[in-house]
Amino acid sequence: MSAKKILIITYYWPPFGGSGVQRWLKFVKYLPEFGWRPIVFTPENPVFSTKDESLLDDIPSEVDVIKLPIWEPAEFFNKASTAVGRKKIKQVTW
Q1: How far apart are CA 44 and CA 63, in angstroms?
Q2: Domain map of the chain by residue range?
Q3: Which residue of 38, 64, 85, 91 is surrounded by the most CB atoms within 10 Å?
């Protein structure tokens, strides 16, 4: 019987670190044991400060990881604030 596929969409994925990354990585790591084949969709260019390259070793070989570039709203506001006399935007409400 072939494994069922499951799509995991997450912003948090190695090589970045932190609790959000650990949560998804460990979840995905054990899915194949229960008959699931995970496919992870994650950004190629997230704005994330913590890196932990060692977490890449925990990704099982049977996991497909799809990375695509995304548009980051925070990047836009940082560039816009720099362009306007280097003023910082203190609060942005959506």
Answers
A1: 16
A2: 4-83
A3: 38
Alpha-carbon distance of 48 to 28, in angstroms, equals 20
Cα separations (Å) of 23 from 30, 42, 65, 81, 93?
Answer: 11, 14, 16, 34, 28
Cβ-proximal residues to 7 (8 Å cutoff; 6+ apart), any chain = 38, 39, 41
Give 29-81 pLDDT, tens digit per residue. 999 999 999 999 999 988 877 889 999 999 999 999 999 998 877 777 777 77
For tokens 């949560």, what's the residue?
23
Tokens of 41: 């969709």
Cα dist from 24 to 21, 31, 52, 89, whole Å: 6, 11, 14, 32
Query: End-to-end distance of the chain based on CA atoms, in angstroms?
Result: 47
